[in-house]
Amino acid sequence: MNTNGVNETDVVVVGGGPGGSTLATLVAMRGHRVVLLEKEKFPRYQIGESLLPSTVHGICRLTGVADQLAKAGFTKKRGGTMRWGATPEPWTFAFSVSPKITGETSHAYQVERSKFDQILLDHAREVGVDVREQHTVTNVIDSRGRVSGVSYVDAAGNEGTILAQYVVDASGNKSRIFQQAGATRKYSEFFRSLALFGYYEGGKRLAEPNSGNILCCAFDSGWFWYIPLSPTLTSVGAVVRQDLASKIKGDPEEALTTLIAECPMISDYLRGAKRVTEGPYGELRVRKDYSYANTKFWRPGMALVGDSACFVDPIFSSGVHLATYGALLAARSINSVLAQAVDEETAFREFERRYRREYGVFYEFLVSFYDMHVDENSYFWSAKKVTESTSTDLESFVTLVGGVSSSEETLAQRYKDRSSEFAKAVDELVANKEQSMVPLMRSAIVKQAMREGAKEQARVLPGLDLELEAPVFEGGLVATPDGLSWSLPA
Ligand SMILES: Cc1cc2nc3c(=O)[nH]c(=O)nc-3n(C[C@H](O)[C@H](O)[C@H](O)COP(=O)(O)OP(=O)(O)OC[C@H]3O[C@@H](n4cnc5c(N)ncnc54)[C@H](O)[C@@H]3O)c2cc1C
């Protein structure tokens, strides 16, 4: 027995971010014993504040935390406003098909992650997860070819070991243990950028009904995000490509001020605003090399979810979506194997294939998004040119996603077709004064990016019969009607 009195459980989850707490909750909901070890004492700072509707109304409804989120007072995000692409005017996409339709699920939230992550972690506790903060996992235990537990050290320096049937690494981009799944991290050649970010009080807001939107604004060196976290607090970040890294070296305050001055719209929005200089938002932070996917997402006894497994560029706010979606897939696999309903190889193959596919969908969508710019000379998306390759995006896509069935040539053509179709859809959107989302929703690349999220949202709507869901892959599995496990297709 260790100092905490428990040394054996069904599942150990490493990390209490959205990936870890979602997985832990979904496994505990099936009655399994789950211990979650989190290095920090919550609330703790994290970047990744702009969410997608599928997280809020799909996965968080399934875990049972959606109502608490609705009451937490987060800014409602109806969509995004972009100064991006050929048109100099900003354009807006809404999660609802028309601005006149504002259904219950046509919004997401902009969240202070310290509060959002705390709500998810507390909810995991409420459903029976044994959450232990200030417990740092130091190692993974291996026995007879499978992962069988972890070692940790707590805040007082006590060391312990927990044996489990499954270890889930959800310890984020700085994970020290993802290699234990036999994985190597492959960084994207295309999305090689750096972000410098901080917080402002008193910035301007978009006109209603878009005041809660994320604002993304392209400029010569890259693009800015501008996320309204409260009526007065704004998260502001500059993303610059790697060959301009010198722009964010040296004094960060000076660097951010210079970058803001390069972008007229952000300068205008921050006129009169004050940078927060105290507390958790007082620091200017830098992140780099953050787009990657691992070569493997699981091995017997261990699975990787969230940033521990993969992440791609923040422009479309897909990080928390991918983390919670990966958690859902892994939870289904664990629940199915523990119930002896499906064998481990089949269950985790389904997890990895679906997860990789969703990652690939976002990767492809984002490449199209960067591609729709006309002025190749001045923009960030000339990354291809910088790396002096005509197919860098494609190569990295193939390497990262792996297991994609199409040949490279077919993929290259698909990229081209989809990028131009997407650019046309945006032009139509801009031209149409009503700002109906129909042209965007018709575009194959947008439809594909929204598909899995929409499916998970639909699953939790009462009265829908999803029993006849078809497998995503030939010979693959389908989700059980409650969404918590896999079963063989009928
Ligand atoms: C510049 C930038 C901007 C972004 N913007 C967005 C955005 O707008 N929207 C969005 O959805 N995503 C965004 N993201 C991505 C988002 O931050 C991540 O995808 C998301 O936080 C991943 O969640 P997670 O649960 O996998 O990991 P995390 O949120 O990183 O949680 C991991 C947890 O594990 C804990 N931990 C680490 N090591 C150990 C250990 N050894 N033992 C125990 N615990 C440990 C950590 O303390 C942490 O709490 C952005 C990312 C970047 C780099």
Give a description of the structure.
It is built from 13 helices and 23 strands. It is α+β, with helices and mostly antiparallel strands and 490 residues long. Residues 376-380 and 382-389 have low confidence and may be disordered. Bound molecules: flavin-adenine dinucleotide.
Defining traits:
13 helices, binds flavin-adenine dinucleotide, 490 residues, 8-stranded mixed sheet, alpha+beta, 34% helix
Rg over CA atoms, rounded to whole Å, is 22 Å
How far apart are the termini?
45 Å
Gross morphology is globular
Helix content: 25-40%
Mean pLDDT: 87
- Judged by helices, strands and strand pairing, the structural class is alpha+beta
Count of alpha and pi helical runs: 13
Instruction: Please count the beta strands (DSSP E, at least 2 residues each).
Output: 23
Ligand inventory reads: flavin-adenine dinucleotide
| Largest β-sheet summary | 8 strands, mixed
What low-confidence regions span 5 or more consecutive residues with pLDDT below 50? 376-380, 382-389
User: Strand fraction band?
Assistant: 15-25%
Entry summary:
The chain has 13 helices and 23 strands. With 490 residues, it is an alpha+beta fold.
